[in-house]
Amino acid sequence: MTRTALTFAGAIATTAALAAPAHAGVLTKSATGCDDPVLSQPFKAWLDNSSYKPVQNGNFEAGDAGWTLTGGAKVVDGNASQHVGGAADSRSLLLPAGSSATSAPVCVGLNEPTLRYFARKNSGLLSTLLVQVQVQLELGVWVTLPVGVDLGGAWHPSLPSLVVANLLPLLPPDMTAVRFKFSPLLGGAWQIDDVYVDPRVSH
């Protein structure tokens, strides 16, 4: 990833942090049904030895189950070339211009602030992929903030996208329900696959 990409991604994360209410963590809704996750190291080949848990159906092998798709987004044949989820995996999610994909809610806390995934830009010279987090507040309202941006290329692991820390529970082991939203900007078509969250408590 280029220095420009790193700077752009950092700017997005900083903007999200500044946009968040200073004490929003107090108002986040505690998540329930947060089972112990199955952990793996899908990004170890890229010098990231962190252990990650998969977002529900983040490999899209179960079709679009658990995801909310708009604008023509759909599961298609063709896996990310890295096959970190398994050699037999054969699907990914296509995001045409004007579309979006939102994951099922996932339990996160202060120990789990990082999202990573695999992406490919299929078309659109200037197109970027916007990544947002939706945090559920105590009254049930979902607040959406940007956490990252991808500038494209062939199948590649994303940079870590940091979930805004002051939107998360103040004290472990409290958990917050969050969703992740992916959408192309400035036209173009993208594919994503193998979406993971990093539980830093496992380091």
Largest sheet: 7 strands, antiparallel
Radius of gyration: 16 Å
**Total DSSP E strands:** 13
Tell me the fraction of residues in β-strands, as a range: 35-45%
The CATH superfamily title:
Galactose-binding domain-like
Q: Oligomer, anyone?
A: single chain
Keywords summarizing the entry:
globular; Jelly Rolls; 203 residues; mainly beta; 35% strand; seven-stranded antiparallel beta sheet
Explained architecture:
With about 200 residues, the chain is mainly beta. The chain has one domain (about 5-20, about 60-200): Galactose-binding domain-like (Jelly Rolls, Sandwich). Helix content is about 10%, strand content about 35%. It contains one helix and 13 strands, in the order H-E-E-E-E-E-E-E-E-E-E-E-E-E. It has one helix at about 5-20; strands at about 55, 70, 75, 90-95, 100, 105-110, 115-125, 130-135, 140-150, 155, 160, 175-185, 190-200. Strands 1, 3, 4, 7, 10, 11 and 13 form a seven-stranded antiparallel sheet that branches. Strands 2, 5, 6, 8, 9 and 12 form a six-stranded antiparallel sheet that branches. The longest helix has 17 residues, at about 5-20.
Structure in a nutshell:
The protein is mainly β and 203 residues long. It has one helix at residues 3-19, and strands at 53-54, 68-70, 74-77, 91-95, 100-102, 106-108, 114-123, 128-136, 142-150, 156-157, 161-162, 176-185, 189-198.
